[in-house]
Amino acid sequence: MISQLAHVDPSAKIGANVTIHPFAYIDKDVEIGDGCEIKPYASILEGTRMGKNNRVFQGAIIGAEPQDFRWKGDKTYCYIGDNNTIRENVIMNRGIKPEGGTRIGNENFIMAKTHIGHDSVVSNHCVLGNGVVVAGDCKIDECVILSSNSIVHENSNVGKWTLVKGGCRIAGNVPPYIIIAHNPAAYFGVNAYVMRKNGFYDSQIDDIAKAYRNVYQSGISVYNALQRIEADIDPSEIRSEIVNFIRGNNLRIVAIPVDMLD
To answer: How far is CA 191 from CA 162, 178, 212, in A?
Structure first.
């Protein structure tokens, strides 16, 4: 159902069984997949490519022009996957260059007044609480929870299965499987409760806890902590995820004093 009171540009590509409510705005060069629902006063702007079965609530703006002086008016994109819930007054900016673009994966729950900046990537099964701010060029990996009013600064990278507590400010790289809280951001333990609810074994959680005792609580450098992890913990996908994330970010992770990095 497409309301006659909605604006739908003739060039927009609308899939089957899409509901567009009165006063929604669908711009030119937009693609909306099957089964989506666009609520009143939501705006889907030029360059948006939306998959199937997404729900976009009142006042949301998807594909807004990037808020970055480097954008020179190029044709750029915002990609939305399948089965996402995008609540009231969410704003997502598209990318600043034709390649890349802002990308939202599948089955994410993005709560009211969240802002996702240009060229950021939100993977799958994430929850972004009310008023979350994700700046440009950030990466949020799978199954991350960003609690209400948390802020992720530009070029930050949040590893999978991480819980960022409400109001926390992230300026850097958060390794996977942990809880980060307070300001300045501090290590607050392993995200064990959520992981157990989602099928992780106690032995896996024990390995994660052992790894992060070396990183955050032993008083040794991050470089030496990685050596201990590889010596003391049996090889596994989880161990590799932790070690590869930290090494892949040049040992620069949040809540570590500068003199402990190397």
So the answer is: 7, 5, 11
Q: Which among 33, 51, 63, 136 is annotated as catalytic?
A: 136
68 labelled catalytic:
no
Return contacts of 198-206, CB within 8 angstroms, 24+ apart. 198/143, 204/236, 204/238
pTM higher than 0.85 for the full model? yes
Distance, CA of 31 to CA of 113 (rounded, Å): 23
pLDDT single digits (tens) 80-109: 999 999 999 999 999 999 999 999 999 999
**Tens of pLDDT, residues 157-191:** 999 999 999 999 999 999 999 999 999 999 999 99
Residue 58: both structure tokens together: 């009142």
Q: Would residue 21 show up in a list of annotated catalytic residues for this protein?
A: no
Specify whether 115 is catalytic: no
Catalytic site residue from 118, 131, 137, 141: 118
Backbone angles phi, psi at 258, to 5 degrees: -55, -40
Angle at 139 between CA 133 and CA 144, to 5 degrees: 75
Please tell me which residue in 51, 81, 105, 119 is annotated as part of the active site: 119
